[in-house]
Queue: 2 jobs
Job 1
Amino acid sequence: MKTHVRALVVGGGAVGCSIAYHLARAGWDTMLLERDELTSGSTWHAAGLLPLFNMSYATTHIHKYSVDFYKTLEAETGLNPGFAVVGNLRMAQTQERMDEYMLYSSVAETAGVHHEFLTPKEIRERWPLVRTDDLKGALFHPQDGYINPADVTQAMAKGARQHGCAIERKWQVDSYEWTGSEWRVTARKMVEKGGNLVPGDEKVVITAEHVVTATGNHAQRTARLLGIRIPAIPVEHQYIVTEPDPALVEWRKAGNPEHPVLRDADARWYVREERGGWILGPYERGAPARFLYDVPESFRADLFPLDLERIEEEYMSMIHRIPSSENVGLKDDFNGPICYTPDGNPLVGPAPGLRNMWLAEGFSFGITAAGGTGYYLAQMMTEGEAEIDMASLDPKRYGSWMTTEYAARKNEECYAHVFILHHPDEEREACRPLRTAPNYDRQKALGAQFGQVNGWERPNYYGPKDAPEDYDHHARSFRRAKWWPFAVEEARAIRETAGLIDATAFTKHVVRGPGATAFLDRFTCNALPRVGRINLTYALTEAGTTRTEYTIVRWGENDYYLVSAGAWTAYDADYLRKRAEDFMAGGGDYVEIHDVTTQYGVFAIAGPNSRAILGEIVKDADPATVLSNKRFPWLTARRIELGMCPVNAIRVAYTGELGWELHHPIEMSRYLWDLLLPAGERHGMKLVGARAQNWLRQEKSYRAFGTELGRDATPLEAGLDRFVDLRKDFIGKQAMLDTGIRAKCVTVLIDGPDDADPWGKEAILHDGEMVGRLTSGGWSVAFGKQIGMGYVRPDLAEVGQKLKVRMLRQEWDAEVVEDSPYDPKNERIRADG
Ligand SMILES: Cc1cc2nc3c(=O)[nH]c(=O)nc-3n(C[C@H](O)[C@H](O)[C@H](O)COP(=O)(O)OP(=O)(O)OC[C@H]3O[C@@H](n4cnc5c(N)ncnc54)[C@H](O)[C@@H]3O)c2cc1C
């Protein structure tokens, strides 16, 4: 056995084999270790469906790659992976479900996934065994279907071997040690003992420059060995196989093709043909999480007992949809562990806090995702970045606040939500409230409807004060939802009077020490602010794309306060710390980094009356001038006192109005709230949530992290040239310049439909051809039109360019407008008083 490799992959399921294949194909010396047999984890009992349907841009790319890749495997390896390209019919019982498919259609179009819409009549004509009288229609993917999970895994393993990868079975990795330059991985030979598979005495130590873990249901053990948290915990998933259905047998005997995989999303199941019978896979409520701490040694390629009662409702609805299945008996059943994560996305990317350690854990659609995961993860490892932004899958999207109990309960919810309506304004209920800012109860009493960001409760909008608990649940829509008029009023208040936003969830870091200035100067692409001033700046990846957006406040020569997006605390902390370590290892002076996110509460006050409101409560020798342009100009920071609360005030407003961010000791948050509200009331101030804020920032063309800003575009492509100082050297500079402009970020105003706004998933067209996509969307109160931001072909990014945006499967006129179409000269933000 090899004892030194460039990359060691741990786990021989579909995911591990795909990663090994793609790393080996990229020319890396790779080895894969599997504790048992290949496919002996969840892979062996998967139903093998390859659904392309997904609302996420990144995941859609991953799934699409898999489906295309699996079709090439036989030619390359000689092994037939058993891909039955029967298509996939996703039925809709309601108009809302059809709306969901129309939104999905946008995602699919931007990712190049072919799909069709079928009417009930068309379904009935093609598949008469399916009952259609209560359907509104269906979405049809003719190019997907199902595959044999074991065969596709073996084919990828063979392909990996052909590219030089070594695959060793019956070796379990038992420890990982980072030497400072490589991993020392100890593996034990597994032996049979009393029917169990247990570690024997034989041991091997392998050194590897990089390690990837793809350990499926064993993720908790992997987490323990690595000393990190991995919120991948399996949930039970069952499917049943029926005896042959005589009507189906006859239909096929007549020479008809196999049915596509059928999905009755409103009834929460999939069904496909299996030897003349049917496989029914329900995503029922109440499926329990399993193996919260570990997989017992006695559990090998085992299954849990069938719980038929739990899936009775779905079973009955299959009979409703396929009436001929009523009298066929059950032949077989499977109830196996299927790994989940709290948001349903797998965890793919660098492990938190560790070097050269990559995770590929928590796959619930692992057969579908394996191919694409291998491809994009190998790109990240061998080339530095993947061609798509993988941030939504990054393992560091959960911080140290995440616990086993949280992961287990959220994963159960995620499983039960597989077939819910995937509203873009959805907020899931489990494990809430958990992380609450001090004014949570006060805000709730005032009608706040909360969303969860990185575990924090953050008001999305303020609805009726006496709203029932489930108000928001019923307020969602693919079109304009019930919350829309509240957000309009909130946006209007910021433009006309004033609004108060609780922005406590912001990520905040203190960076200081003798090396702080030199470090940050290289870490970020904009010139550092002078003492007392602030700057907007970006940390880039080595590939020159945007890793993080920061507002940097410089309090002293070597004393900085960095504010970044609330959803990404651990993700930002990890990069900051690792780059600071590199800086010091390279001879740089000492730099201290502190995550102070939970030490400071933040209120953002904005609007023409915001100065007057603060003026009522500010304490200063000369309160009349303390907030004036002379003493407190735009883009500066000052320590002020509001009543008895010391506040680090920053004169910026993400909404583009005169305003301040008030960073204050979190324990004084309630005091400050109680001070601000009565003062605000006298000046028409409204409480404002994240939805209105998201619209307003688009009127100012303020890019947001995770939408316009990500690891697939450089700041120059994002149109942020004025925040890039080319006179200095910074991480990713040359790569950014070498990349050129592949697409350009623009703001568009859209003459859209009367009852819907874009969500930031829609295709942008020109002369009937797709030329870009929206990354954000909403309603502009200032312009009385739909607004969006997105990326288009550079030659179509000029102001005044006429384009179309496809929403609800229709094309709507759109026009590229100047950056910051609302108050382009920033006169309102700079207003004096
Ligand atoms: C009933 C059921 C039906 C499903 N149907 C579908 C479907 O239709 N479509 C779909 O896409 N997905 C489906 N899934 C999900 C799918 O099975 C999984 O997402 C997928 O198999 C995950 O693959 P993996 O490689 O991540 O994990 P696994 O297949 O579990 O592989 C992990 C491997 O790592 C090994 N390992 C763990 N720890 C170590 C160690 N320390 N050292 C060495 N080796 C180690 C294990 O032995 C195991 O072989 C289904 C799941 C279930 C339960």
Note: The pocket of flavin-adenine dinucleotide is lined by residues 10-16, 33-36, 40-43, 45-49, 172-173, 214-218, 237, 239, 334, 336-339, 363-368 (CB under 6 Å).
Job 2
Amino acid sequence: MTSKQVKPLSGAVRTSAGAVRPLAGVRITGGLLHHWQRRNGTATIPHTIEQLRAAGNVANLSRLLEQDPAPYRGRYPFLDTDLYKTLEGLAYELGDGRAGEPVREFFDEVVGLLERVQAEDGYLNSFFQDPAATKKPWEDLSWGHELYNLGHLIQAAVAAARRMGDERLLRVAERFADLVVERFAHDGVCGHPEVEMALVELYRETGLRAYLDLAAAFVDRRGKGQLKHSIFPGDYFQDHLPFRELPSVTGHAVRMAYLAAGAADVYLETGDRSLFEALERLWDDMVATKLYVTGGLGSRHSDEAIGDRYELPSERAYTETCAAIAVMQWGWRMFLATGGAGYLDVFERVLYNAYAVGLSADGKAFFYDNPLQRRPDHEQRSGAEAGGEPLRRAWFTCPCCPPNIVRWMAQLADYVAAERDGALLIASYAAARVEGTELGLAMETAYPWDGDVRLTVERAPGGPYRLVLRVPGWARGASVTVNGEAWQAAPHDGWLTVERHWQAGDEVRLTLPMPVRAHGSHPYLDATRGAASLARGPLVYCVEQQDSPDAAVDDLVIGVPEIVNANIERRDDAVVLTLTAAAAPPPSTELYPELPLEEAPLETTVTAAFVPYFLWGNRGPEAMRVWVRTPDATNGKKAK
Ligand SMILES: [Zn+2]
């Protein structure tokens, strides 16, 4: 491939079919997301670098430069991706001026290794380049993860080029991608989707159509039963049916959502309507039947699979952290394609719940799977993998989630706002400076702890301009004032538009009421039938045993009136909900008592506090529930 036309670094992707363009000019300045980003820099990134070194991810590259290389360390052929995901996060940290010298040294060290380890023909993979490797490159497309590796390399490279203006990694990625364009010109597809999203980004960055065409081909080549590994069924790889014919999201959750996000990227550049129709159908079906209330995707530990419709058990929820990130990637692209606010509702549900719970409060321990319930006698997986850690762990043998958390945390500002012709769209609320369109703003808010948002115009365009504010689906009675006067416009399809001639200093205040909500579940969802979960704003709440001193959390019975009248208390690091509940021990010790039960249980009134779900498990391993019993779920017995 010759005559590369390198585009100027725009800092944001271009899209042709999309209704909305992303915006790179946002900086988060305060609040919860700012706290998360600072913690990423001060705790999670140093910890991750330490773990990557200790686990051998760096040595897996450096050993290949030695005469007599040491054996590859680790069980899986995709361990380079953990470096790539970390580099992607570091590119944001360095580019945005949040990281110091140790981070730059690590970044330079690994980039330097990659430049030197890359083969003459562009191939790069420390597992298959091992002289002692039992398999040759491209011999095992089902399990080799080589294109999955390339995908993460490209994403790191594009991030470094865009955010840092550093194109060293981009050169490495292009050489490998060019090899792949040739090798996969006519057939072949990777067992783990991911490279599709990345190739579209590489196309956006370089303008080279071959990358986009290959991404589109990879989406279309699935569904022919070519991928086989071990005991996994075809749907594990999304290879049992063509993508456009899938009736529902299925198989391995992370593979499925990465594939859909990649297909959405292909649609954004090609405008291929049949692809979009499939994406819309799959998304709608997922949201209606397969997504946990936390936004988590994937019920089954077996095959890390999504599971059947309405198969959403709480204590056995798998909901891998990587799947949460993949659902956000997919949802964001659906928003770009349509401007639909509903996609952002799901995005935010995932962000503040299924994603955020994957990281400990101190930023140094991770959940891989994210259940919605912990039973009091829960048996933690044991053995070397657990390392004796009862909840979140410092690292994993398969460490895909921790560096995925790192890169996503580092780029959260990219998902705060977007642009449509003549309009600035605020997709999510955070204390931030919003630049990149004709309208420059400072946004102040304590969101998600409260729903008051103040936007101050810092730079105004000459003519009229629209400021379009997202009104989340849960926010009833949202209102806006402009310079203190009520703005008479109702939200439409989840957006509230303020169009006017702006002047610097203009102030817009948005109020999103945040009462406590009680949510039930679909009658087919057996696992949570008759139970309620608590939410406030975008946050799902849970009760841990520590906060229910007078009753086991499994015995709490709470009616809707008690939930919606819960006391809302702002503490140091969170908003906590306190409410009264009935303590209702089981009416019978039998596992399957005959109905109706005659004896009424003795009930007492107790107080319990609910904390945001993402904060659970930071005070020791005790019982936890997202879903609590309601009077309806106690064999007809009403709570007091
Ligand atoms: Zn993972």
Note: The first strand starts at residue 21 and ends at 22.
